[in-house]
Each structure stands twice: as structure tokens, then as C-alpha cells.
Amino acid sequence: MPTVFFSYSHADEDLRDQLEKQLAMLKRQGVIETWHDRRIGAGQELGQVIDDHINTDDIILLLVSPDFIASDYCYDIEMKRAMERHDAGEAIVIPVILRACDWHHAPFGKLLGTPKDGKPVTQWPDRDEALLHVARAVRNAAGRLSGSKAPAAIGPPPSQAAITAGDVTPSRPGPRSSNLRLSKTFTQRDKDQFKADTFEYIARYFENSLAELEARNPGYQGTFRRVDANRFFATIYKDGKDVARATVYLGGMLSGINYLQGETTSSNSSNESLSVDADDQMLFLTSMGMSSFGREREQKLTQEGAAEILWGLVIDPLQQRHSW
């Protein structure tokens, strides 16, 4: 059975946990086994155990982010050894782009990244869909290994590089389950703060999008006007004539983040509404689906995904108008 090694920065541990959950079906089917440094037992030599896996595991996932690239251990030791084995045909390296960063110029930049088109996981409207792309890439890689583990490649002597104390959480030695993830809890304060942060993100998203729309499309002008801490207006003009107007506000009757066509100071109606929800690992946003007839209601939206849904309500009619 092919073994999968996670090379990642501990700053991305939450995303690694979410990815491992998405790989659960492959593990249940006996398609793969997974390993990462949180499985190192008490009394084991940290560098030695990691080197053993980086030198023998069949599939190596590089969980790429700014923190991954900035980490001397991840980049200079794990990634370089992974690419040596990939180039020698001893392992399959898959870059998993977690967060936006300048990864195309790295040694693994020549490889096809996942999710689709190398779009970072955190920029997908539905994070589960992004991680599903990764799971499919791992399944495909395991299939290319013909479902049987090749003899362990003989690698160079174990690296003497040290890991800082406390970087790995000790756990009990010996055989054990990999199902060790515990549920996280989120307070109402956490949810309220996430909602407020998301509103600010959407405001910046609209302001920047309006400016870029104007720069790219002669004859069009975009205006962003912040009314107060909880409301902004967005207007698009074509040759001086308004062709789209929108209000986005926080709170009101529906209590979430709300979109309304036109400019209004009323908080009693909405064409679309976003609310904050949580699973056992993260906070996310959900759409009421009023503008899409419920099609987007089940998606776990990131802040960017939520902003893109609301921006789409402004721009889609203009794009359809010119689709001929």
C-alpha cells in the first residue's frame, strides 16, 4: 500500500487536518496510508524518523504556503530531498497549494500543482471542493504506483538537521490509530468576530474589484462609497449612466452579511444573505441561496468565496448583457 508523507509548516496544521479528513475514504479503502510528524512517538529521534519517511514514502505532499517557503527545514531539507527522489523516479511529489505565494519559481514549480489550476485552497469558494481535487490527485498517484509498494529506496544517510524543541508534540509510542483529531469549539464571540472580519474583507474586495473593472474596461467607471462601519454602496457606470447599484450591509433583520440591489439605508430586506457557521474544525460562511435558487446553500464558503458570490450579483448581469 502506498504511503503518503505530509511536508508542511506547522502554521498550516489546521489545513493539513482538513486535507487528511478528505483523504479518509482512500485510507478506509486501503488505497494509501498517511504519515506526518505529529505521529512521532516519545523517545524517538525527531530528525531520524522524519528522514526515514522522506527517504522511503511513496507519495510526498508538499503543502505549499508562504510559511512553507519561509521554513528552512521544509524548503531546504524536506522539499529538496523530495525532489531528488521524484527526479530519480523513487517517489511522486505533489505540490498542494494551500495559500497564495510565489511558488512557480521553486524547484517544484515545474510540477502540476493541485487543486485545479494551482488555485490556492484558501481562495476556493468551497474549501471542501478544493481539497477533493487534492484527494483525487492522490488517488491518481496511488493508482500509478499500481497499488503495490515498491521496495524502499536507499537514500542518503539521515540528515543531522535538528528540529526546535517543542515543534513536535510528543505522543505515546508504539502502534496506534491515525484517527486522533479532536473537535474544536467556537464561541459566539468567535463567530461574531469572523462575521465582522468577513464584512471588512468583502468591502475591500468590492473596492479593489471596482477599481480594476474601471482600469480594464474603457467607458466603465466604478464607485465605492462607505456609508458607515456596517454598510457600503457599489455603483458601476457605463459612459456616465449607472448600470448597476448595490448595497452590502452587516446585521439588520437577517443578522448576517446582506446584499441588496440599489442603494438603501434600510436593513429589512435582502436579495442574498450570508451567515457564519462552523464544523468541528473551522468557521465558514453559508449562503441562503436566494439568488441561486438554493444551489449554493450547502457550500462551506471562505471569505473570498463569499465575496465572489456577492460580487457576481453585481457583475453577472453586465457580462450576460455583452455575451452576444
TrEMBL record:
Q: In this protein, which residues make up the domain named TIR?
A: 1-142
InterPro entries linked to this entry:
TIR_dom, Toll_tir_struct_dom_sf
Has UniProt tagged this entry with the keyword Flavoprotein? no
Among Gene3D superfamilies, the record links this protein to:
Toll/interleukin-1 receptor homology (TIR) domain
Its keywords, alphabetically, are: Receptor
The record's listing under SUPFAM superfamilies reads: Toll/Interleukin receptor TIR domain (SSF52200)
Keyword Cell inner membrane attributed:
no
Q: Which domain of life is it from?
A: Bacteria
Q: Which PROSITE patterns match?
A: TIR
Name residues in a coiled coil.
Answer: none
Q: What is this protein called?
A: Toll/interleukin-1 receptor domain-containing protein
Gene source species:
Pseudoxanthomonas putridarboris
